[in-house]
Amino acid sequence: MFLKQIHKRLFLHGLLLVSVLGMTMAAAGISSEAADINLMKQSVVRVTMVVDKGVLDPNFKGTLIPISEFLRDIGVAAKDEPTGGTGFIIGNGKYIVTNYHVVAEALKYQKYVAYFKPAVVLGYNRYKTGKLIGWSDIQRKDIAIFEMDERLDRPDVTFAAAGMNVGDDVTCIGYPAVADVEEVWANSESSVSSGKIQKVTRDENQTRVYQTDAAINHGNSGGPAFNSKGEVVGITTYRKSPNFAAVGYMRTYEEIIEELKRANVPFKQGDQAQQVTGPVSDGAAPGKAPWYMNKLVWGAGAMGIILLGAVIFVVSRPKSQAVSAPVPAAKPGPRPAAQAGQQPNVQPGSQPGASQQVQPAPTPSVPQLKPVLVGLNGQFAGSVVELGVQAVILGRDPQQAQLVFPSNAEDISRTHTVVKYDASSQSFLVEDRSTNGTFLVTGERLKPGEVRRLHAGDRFYLSDNRNMFEVRLENVR
Questions:
Q1: Does domain 158-254 have CATH number 2.40.10.10?
Q2: Reading across the β-sheet that carries 384-386, which strands appear in turn?
Q3: CB–CB of 193/172 below 8 Å?
Q4: Fold held by 369-475
Q5: Where are the domains of the chain?
């Protein structure tokens, strides 16, 4: 009897210890889900536009300076001097996402735009440059993507797999302007502002946005907005006006992901899952937490301890002396025959006695898309031309062009630009055949005879930006 009491006490103490350890580890596993602000800040960078000073003086070749300094050196008085904003890292440190308006202010200086490069600010007069590879302009999503010339050894962000609701907590990280002095500006740390989602809505361009009371100021543009798990749910874009400082707006993560897919850029989304839309870089993503900080490891450890407690409980139970008599197994007998006119209970199309096969769920229908060329302003504003197998020519020659400009449009060549849809890659091919040039929306001029591949939503113009067109993929109604 005495031994049984000791046995029972040991079991109860052991069960209590297992319960405490299990709850402690489970709590640690839950707390590991909480967002780490310092880890989040490592994925956020300051973004600006720079230029090689060697353009002005060969003695300074290789010296990068902000374009604001470059414009002052050449005597250009910029009304809205480009100062930069915020961005965040994706694609194994190889790509940066920011707002288009962060870089667009520089693109309006078309005479010099070929020399300008987007860059990440590492410190005063220290930059890593890249090239713009995808964008949706201010009138649409206001998102830009650039590819770094050298990979940043810092962690990527992870996008959320589900949206936000009104009342949810949100954290915005960015670089609001702290001073007009370049040295102070460049070396300042990122700022964190927290708030809640006030509204889930769409703006005047029908782009999905979140309204928040988190502080969004000049310089925050292009920065990430995180949920409570440290996943990106949006990109901080604008506030309504100076009179509404507490009302800011963020483009949602769905809008960003659409642009990443168009640009064929890899990204991470969801809990531990990586969705890749482009080539995968070798090696593990930088900044990955060690294995012992993984919440799955914590959870497995807690489950292991609970399972160990269950085993101890079973082993420590006193064995019963009573032994039940074995129940004789029933002898197999003949199966009752189906009555006349009664069919065996089998599924249509299957053989009696055969195992039933699970029918696959029907494949959802894929929406049909049609490629179109849309005129945005000028002579063909509002015009929509469907692009089929044959190329569409824009120019003044009515014998060759399908979009015919007036004969007095002297800046347009007889056969100015050729546009064709490539169904295999769902992209568009634009070829320049003009004298005065075909330009991308960034101001880059295509070389004569050059064929450039564009994606749905990209824009180009003929001679000047008063002849702007956009290529799109629209749902077939």
A1: yes
A2: 384-386, 369-375, 468-475, 459-462, 438-440
A3: yes
A4: Tumour Suppressor Smad4 (2.60.200)
A5: 158-254, 369-475
112: DSSP letter: T
Q: Please check whether residue 103 is in contact with residue 118, taking contact to mean a CB–CB distance below 8 angstroms.
A: yes
Q: Percentage helix, strand, coil, to 5, in the chain?
A: 20, 30, 50
Q: Which two tokens stand for residue 397?
A: 């020659």
DSSP code string of 313-380: HHHHSPPPS--PPPPPPPPP-PPPPPPTTPPPS--TTS-TTSPPPPPPPPPPPPPPEEEEEEE-SGGG
Q: Nearest Cα to 92, choosing from 290, 288, 289, 281?
A: 281
> What would the DSSP string read from start to end of 398-412?
TTT-SEEPPTT-TTS
Q: Residues 89-140: pLDDT tens digits? A: 999 999 999 998 888 777 777 667 777 888 998 887 789 999 888 887 766 7
* pTM greater than 0.70 (yes/no): no
The residue with greater pLDDT, 10 or 382, is 382
User: Distances in Å between the alpha carbon of 155 and those of 43, 109, 310, 386?
Assistant: 5, 34, 41, 43
Both structure tokens of 321: 């002396």
Residue 250 CA to its chain's centroid (Å): 13
